[in-house]
Amino acid sequence: MPSTSLAAWPFDNTYARELAGLHAPCQPSRVPAPRLLFLNLPLATELGLDPATLAGPGGADLFAGNVLPPGAEPIAQVYAGHQFGGFSPQLGDGRALLLGELVDRAGRRRDIAFKGSGRTPFSRGGDGKAAVGPMLREALIGEAMHALGIPTTRALAVAATGEPVYRERPLPGAVLTRVAASHLRVGTFQFAAARGDGARLRLLADYAIARHDSDLVGTPGRYMGLLARVAQRQAALVAQWMNAGFIHGVMNTDNMTVSGETIDYGPCAFMEAFDPQAVFSSIDRQGRYAYGNQPGIARWNLARLAEALLPLMVEDEVAAGGDEDAAAEGLVAQATAVIDAFPAQYEAHLRQGQRAKLGLALTDPDAGAGTDGGTEAATDPGPDASLADDWLALLHAQRVDFTLGWRRLADAAAGDEAPLRALFTDLPALQGWLARWQARCSLDSGDTPGERARRMRRANPWIIPRNHQVELALEAAMEEGDLGPFDRLLAAVRAPFEERPAFAAYAEPAPAAVTAAYRTFCGT
Questions:
Q1: Is the pLDDT of residue 296 over 50?
Q2: In angstroms, rounded to a whole number, what is the distance separating the alpha carbons of residues 204 and 172?
Q3: Which residues pair with 269 in a beta bridge?
């Protein structure tokens, strides 16, 4: 159902063309009264699309799925996944459709996909629809993550459908258009591997390499190389989550991308009072995906990717003349070494981010091995790591807001400790730590207090999507059709490092009682 009223999008469809058996063709459901709620003008420009055309009369029909741009070949992707530790051999896009791929102005291939566009062959009894609130939530959090410099999928648009979706009660329906480096997941590899389909698994792995690690194309050991690259990207990503106080909430293997982008903003949340055990997701009753567990879960997911790729590695060794049992044993050892290297890689990224947040030089000359991103575990984390760990312990012990604690430390760097002291009840403990931090700062020659404070304010946001503000904005949009609160919050989170009086309310934490009772939901 192409439309000639909208300019043609220069689609390519490599996933549909090259990976038969890993998707099914499917069309979006028609909706009665499409209305454009959100259009990401900067992203549209980045993709080489015409924002004026998209915002025009045909935009709502397009983004609700009533018409498709020429060249789109909608498909639902199939994948498997470990969900809260239990393996489901077939999941797939139950309410999403990949329309195709665009090469953006920077030469990057980007997926364009619908979410909430109706039933697919993988809906498993669901209606395939989505509500306005969760779709606007994904748009909002994705833009916040992008502004924080954290790799993420992003929403190009959200369109209301004019029809209800039925959950605990009727809710206004919506379709989101998502842009991603790709939608390849650990679970995609698990799907092919679980079926013993070596040929399809090889096609998939070679496709992923060509798309995300093209220098590995055709090289010996490329599948081990792919595993190592995915591990490196995930180490960097999860470290950024941790340094922003972000809790993904549902780190199933079908929600871990090989591209290293954050995907799926269902039950996610940002921490307020620092607590390594913080959990907000209503479905995470055992705390599997608590804030402090995220690095370990990432490693666990990577081990599942290694298991899926191992048959290809063994097959190549045998084809080269190796003994199958010896090849398997050696490759398991190599893959284990890649997985075992993950904690040190993660630690290196975490500590680099913490040094920036502390206003320190980005090297710790007294640290032990492993802090440079190597594969060996650090024998001594070094004084900078101890300083960061003790700061976090101080935040935890005094229930200090994670974001404001770091931000007000920048004020202290500039010589004004009063805003920081106002966050603490045990001032002697704070003062003892500040003395250590100031002594460490003095070792970085050539730094003035003003320069350090400015640098810290570029590393420590003033505004994050505060959970209560997100809920207020979504409630207004869903219950009253009022997008004003959403638009204002969006403007605030798109400039998270700037302190502007007009957005001061968005920097304030919720009352402790509100945060204690706050729960997030998957939005399905």
A1: yes
A2: 37
A3: 247
pLDDT tens figures, 204-224: 999 999 999 999 999 999 999
Main-chain dihedrals φ then ψ at residue 332, nearest 5 degrees = -60, -40
- What string of H, E and C letters represents the secondary structure of 332-359? HHHHHHHHHHHHHHHHHHHHHHHHHHHC
Asked if residue 375 has pLDDT above 50, the reply is no
Question: Distance between CA atoms of 371 and 107, rounded to whole angstroms?
Answer: 33
Written as one string, the DSSP assignment of 242-271 is HHHTEE-S---GGG-BSS--B---SS-EE-
The tally of CA atoms less than 13 A away on the side-chain side of residue 33 is: 5
Give this prediction's pTM: 0.94
Burial class from Cβ neighbours inside 10 Å (0-12, 13-18, 19+) for residue 60 reads buried
Helices of type H across 75-174: 132-147
Listed in sequence order, the residues at least 6 apart from 113 whose beta carbon sits closer than 8 Å to its beta carbon are 96, 97, 98, 99, 177, 178, 179, 180, 183
Residue 339 confidence class, pLDDT cut points 50, 70, 90: very high
SS3 content of the chain, % helix, strand, coil (to 5): 50, 15, 40
Strand, coil or helix: 484: helix
How far, in Å, CA of 415 to CA of 482, rounded?
A: 43
285, pLDDT greater than 80: yes
For the CA atoms of 492, 498, 504, 507, what is the dihedral angle to 10 degrees? 80
Phi then psi dihedrals of residue 39, to 5 deg: -135, 125
On the question of pLDDT at 373 being above 60, the answer is no
Paired residues of 81 in beta bridges: 88
3-state secondary structure of 213: coil
Q: In the predicted model, what is the mean pLDDT of residues 18-35?
A: 97
Q: Which positions are catalytic?
A: 254
**Are 7 and 55 a contacting pair, CB within 8 Å?**
no
Q: Report residue 124 as tokens.
A: 């498993």
CB 517 within 8 A of CB 280: no
- How far apart, in whole angstroms, are the C-alpha atoms of residue 182 and residue 18? 14
